[in-house]
Write a structure and sequence with these properties.
Strand content of chain A: 15-25%
Enzyme class (chains A, B, C, D): transferase
CATH class of the largest domain in chain A: Alpha Beta
Protein name (chains A, B, C, D): Diaminobutyrate--2-oxoglutarate transaminase
GO molecular function, one term (chains A, B, C, D): diaminobutyrate-pyruvate transaminase activity
CATH architecture of the largest domain in chain A: 3-Layer(aba) Sandwich
Number of domains of chain A: 2
Shape of chain A: globular
Radius of gyration of chain A: 22 Å
Organism (chains A, B, C, D): Spirochaeta africana (strain ATCC 700263 / DSM 8902 / Z-7692)
Largest sheet of chain A: 7 strands, mixed
Number of strands of chain A: 18
Cofactor (chains A, B, C, D): pyridoxal 5'-phosphate
Oligomer: homotetramer
Chain lengths: 437, 437, 437, 437
């Protein structure tokens, strides 16, 4: 079918030059960013591959910053999506009832919640991660009647005002043009060093009536910090945090926008730790096709918003519901988890090799599941590695407060061959940077 | 084609019962709202029509709260969308360059900006109206180095913390769980009565060094307030506001999320007034297909965000770019505007009839273009009218702080026959409510 | 006695030159202000008179900005004060019990509260007006569980962060270096013109669920605005405001720091209006001798602070209690009120004369009791009048957002002769300014 | 003289009963606190002694919470004060020039600033510690153009909104009825234990662009925390903090309201550390007589307030200037410092004895100079010790977030005999509590 419907005038390779980015430079705001790292016109993508307008092929170890965990244009999702569109399924419905939404809810309950013994009400906020986070913050403050929320150093939760107040990055915070208030930054696991018990430290502030840190409505956690530099909290630390929250009657919010939907190997990133957050924020790969969608999962006892107390025009993006439902089939058994566990080792081996082979990068390896990073302590070299990688046909971004981490985010559905190819390109890129130092 | 690809297992009418909403009631959060007004399972839509799972047909005078100005599943948009998907076009790209984005930018420049002599840089914030508003607020505060923003009574700008602070509705404001700060509410046009010059009043506060109202970074305006109750500012008032902003060096932000994209008859709602805002927020119908997308238009001299200073995962929703580009063809000439102007009169006549025929509603008519409302001063009757309408197969919502306005939002592409049918259903519904009082 | 204890080395006229202000110019911060208007070294004062180091005499129509309502060094107060000091009475006691505090409480109850049928608990905040206001704001927010407080245009309530947020003056607000939040400025009586009903306007915002103005914990009122420009609210307006507060369950705070302690003719400025505020802030002239002292009066049902929840080192300034007790004797009968009423007419006549005789000042007269002002609409002329007055030996300041009001604040205990002399100096000064225009 | 002027009707012992506190209980607000710990009517005081209305004598180890460092009614101060009053010196002058203010400025420059090579401009804020702190915060934010201020755990800076936001105590913070914003609490010296380098920890947050802690305008320090529990920062730590502030371009504010004016043995508490803060807040004992007065000392390059940008009615409390000038004579040589150093050892020995003799209190000793404390880790015993002490005629208060520290604040001018007597009473009280456990 894909051939028959393709129409020659729509073939982008006949219309565009891959290096002509003039309209972006003249018309788009200076706020544009990734186009500066990957200055090429892309026109096609499938699974872990992308092509530019000149037909050059790229391996994608970026995955839409975690929004394309199942790769580009997954054929099963694609088929469901096109069928739904062509039969005039409802595209946009706010929070009216549609069959697409109903089927998603049923599948989410049957495949995700029930087998994990999770009892959550499902809220559809606006279709972005920051909207899920904003709804979670509002809800926690309403439930507890407290103003403040504790977030962690190097947290990233979004760019709207409420989420930005709990985001660590100084450059992004400055963008607010306002003091960012009602939040307290506490040290993440291993923030200063391996020895300091950051939770004991935080609890000391809670215990001390004179600490100046008010009892918060909630603590918001990323189990692995993606934007913050692939910082991994141990499962024990995560469990201790949940325990601390219970003892102090603080709500625990897990922002699983980036680490969720399989990125760490299980559907939720917190499954291995065995905790049950009060609220879970989900977005990015929930639709599986890169379509905007977000969920806020709420323990039933905290489901206290009145009708419409939080809303948004695009909370009913049914095309996303259709593909989201289809992705859940990946989670009907543990085969995907097993595959990720196996391939995770391939990634770690490759990164271990680079650390050894490229001493000038002063690199170390960090990560969990398919959230892996090569921390390059030699100043600027992580960016160099990504630049070199791109010139070799591998798409990767950096993260961390000083862009010091080359971040590996391949699709979790990638084949062994695809993964190997990408890792080889990375090894070559790292070696080239190392040799030039 | 629609028939051939339709596959029997996907036929929702064979799988669903229109009145079985159990999963929504048990699993979805209590925050759900429209499903309470329209308690039926919808499965299909085309143009101004929707169908439920039992095959019942509804006329849609709601249009996704303004996100479906071109109707449901417009065939031209549908074709472009499916073609793009099937040729493995990039679905999700953050702010990397794609052909879909390039074509949108070119068309937006050629068809929208240039003919209107508008010189704006285009920013792609997260794909929701509130994200466009948050980016506008951040930018204005950064440009002017001032904290405060003036918004108007009964304004609606979104549910994330920054936008909520400039939204009037008390119920929604309470949801924040926090004091909402750095904003001042000033009276909208004709807020108290027809006589009071609300701009002179506001300017008195600005002039008076002792007023306690700080010089704001920006004033944010909806030219017609949709959620606030179909309140219409006159073109003269809008021009005077722009003039006031110029005299006081205040940025003028037009939130055209709901009133833009043709809803008032022109692409931007402020065209008739002849003003040039410093920032324009666009979302809802910009994709034309109900797909999440938003734009922040910025005068070049204010384009001061650094790369990535505001960002978001779904700013590159390419499926939306594809349909958005296609919608711009409607604006290549003035035929759509003329059609809207003609049909606007049909709506006004119908509403005028109702006002006369249904005295117990104590109704009056308000509106501009295809933003029309029947204000029912008899307590609760606007809701009754909408309920009656739905029982007759017409979908309409209420707006206003006390849900006192029955709001007519038909697709701007609706046929005369479709419009007439909807208006007749409304007239019947109003008569029924009136008779029962 | 005054002679015998006076010691020649302490005679300032032998040690100081009235025009040598060098140490102030080199060592004191640029924030100093009144010394710039009255650039002379003062060394002695009695009743309504002050003397500089060279022995020049000045009539004081300033009265320490309302802190010296009973004149300088009132002999009865002076005697009590010296006796107390010499018998080693407790000078400073925080909120421990002392005889001086006990006697003040008893007298305040017997002479002030009981005869006026006022049932208030007395709180001693830190000994300044802003401290009384801060304690009132905290208490109101605690009692009502609401964040916001409504204040009026051109209000002046103090310079600490909470009070500054409800103060109108833009220059002073800027000093905060922070956004000033949790307050809303509403138009004072006759703010725009005589016709507009500013309370109806405010109530419209409260009634409208979409106004964007949250229900406040309290409304804070100065019955006459001193710093704001001698703006007088009518008794009817004040009563209507109390009524509005009752209907909306809003606490009414009267900031009587400047207008209280007899300045308007009665002990409290709100007595004539017949209202009973929920909280009253008192300071300035409560000690009667210019000694720092403040009171927060609280209806018993709102007395909800826990022990020490608001405190301060100098809440027990016993020297002030001693003189404060003595001042209350002025209020044992209505003789002082009658005297003020009579002299008020003298002031009004004199100002009326100036308005007539000095047309170039474009002056009008405003005021109530001994809070009188000559508003000079000709730009800068109020300052000129005060400068001319000072050169003639009359001390007066300006007020209003643009220093457009020459403010008459003679001691309320001034003799007819003293008042007449001051008024004549003012008339001469005004005439001189008028003639020079 | 004291006898001759004493007048029998003013003799409080003839008028009052020491245990009759009825008027306080019925008329004063529940916010009253010290009267609950010391429920007796005091009528007279001299040096380190107080007497109640029945003539009972008490040793004062409280010193007005540090406002009476030179004891009660110091005869030299008393004489100057009475002379000034009797010669009709100006009592209240706002910030007009008076001889009393001039003499204070000259003496402060000559005796305090010059010999210490300190170059400060002197600002007179309202006459309370919190007013000095509020003015310092405003100034620092204005100078640096940054919003946030770092304060320390268990800091106490005052009760008005700006100061309260940087005060640690949870009970007092709750009183605000508002979120307290624009401040960050960092761990004071030895906050968690002796090992953790709390400045390195804080600097880690400043260095890390992703920490979520914004670069502050200022860091505000008490060199010894009085209210916070007699927590002592080492001189090295204080120097390191100054160094950190210089490296990060952060203003260093020392709140010397309680620790200054000789309490630690030198006039400023930071002299021994050898640092030069950007701003110093002084109040409490600056007048030496318990009269309300405060100073904000500002490095000349930061003296950027405009005239009147911060003001206050009682900034010109001339009676306080008179006694303040007289106190400076104590600092013309180092005799007072030497005396304090000698007596400090007596206190430490006594506390050491108690720690040994009273094991059930689980006590330890903390302090510097005349800020000494007995920390009683056995729950509630510090309060018991103070209660027992009071019953024996010794006035002491507790401090610390859980009132776990018995705080010794004798006058710094106390005689050896007086100090010994107080310490013996404390030893007896501690023993009694220990024996009863």
């Amino acid at each position: 079918m894909s051939t028959s419907t393709q129409n020659t005038t729509d073939d982008p390779s006949q219309k565009h030059d891959a290096t002509d980015l003039g309209i972006f430079e003249t018309l788009e705001s200076e706020v544009r960013s990734y186009i500066r790292n990957f200055p090429i016109l892309f026109t096609k993508a499938k699974d872990h591959l992308m092509w530019d307008a000149d037909g050059n092929e790229y391996v994608d170890f970026f995955s839409g910053a975690g929004a394309l965990n199942y790769g580009h244009n997954n054929p099963d999702l694609q088929k469901k999506l096109v069928d739904y569109i062509l039969r005039d399924g409802i595209a946009h419905s706010l929070d009216m009832a549609t069959d697409a939404k109903k089927e998603f809810l049923e599948a989410f309950q049957d495949i995700i919640l029930k087998p994990r013994l999770l009892d959550y009400k499902v809220m559809f906020p606006g279709p972005t991660g920051t909207n899920a986070v904003e709804s979670a913050l509002k809800l926690a403050r309403k439930v507890k009647g407290r103003d403040s929320v504790i977030s962690f150093t190097n947290a990233y939760h979004g760019m709207t005002l409420g989420s930005l107040a709990i985001t660590g990055n100084a450059f992004k915070r400055t963008g607010a043009g306002l003091p960012l208030t009602n939040s307290v930054a506490m040290p993440y696991a291993n923030y200063l060093n391996e020895e300091m018990d950051t939770l004991a430290y935080m609890e000391h502030f809670l215990k001390d009536n004179g600490s100046g840190v008010d009892l918060p409505a909630a603590i918001i956690l990323e189990t692995v910090q993606g934007e913050g530099g692939i910082n991994v909290a141990s499962l024990a630390w995560i469990r201790d945090l949940e325990d601390l929250c219970r003892r102090w009657d603080i709500m625990l919010i897990v922002d699983d926008v980036q680490a969720g939907c399989g990125r760490t190997g299980t559907f939720f990133s917190f499954e291995e730790a065995g905790i049950t957050p009060d609220i879970v924020c989900i977005s990015k790969s929930i639709s599986g096709y890169g379509l905007p969608m977000a969920l806020t999962l709420i323990k039933p006892e905290h489901d206290v918003f009145g009708p419409g107390e939080h809303n948004g025009t695009f909370r009913g993006n049914n095309l996303a519901f259709v593909t989201a439902t289809e992705t859940l089939k990946f989670w009907q058994d543990d085969s995907l988890t097993k595959k990720i566990r196996a391939q995770e080792k391939m990634i770690e081996e490759s990164l271990g090799k680079i650390v050894q082979a490229c001493p000038k990068l002063k690199a170390e390896h960090r990560g969990r599941g398919f959230m892996q990073g090569l921390v390059c302590h030699a100043n600027g070299t992580a960016k160099d590695v990504c630049r070199e990688a791109f010139s070799r046909g591998l798409i990767m971004e950096t993260s961390g407060p000083n862009s010091e981490v080359a971040k590996l985010f391949p699709p979790i559905t990638i084949s062994d061959a695809g993964l190997k190819r990408g890792l080889e390109l990375l090894e070559q890129a790292a070696a080239a940077v190392n040799d030039n130092l």
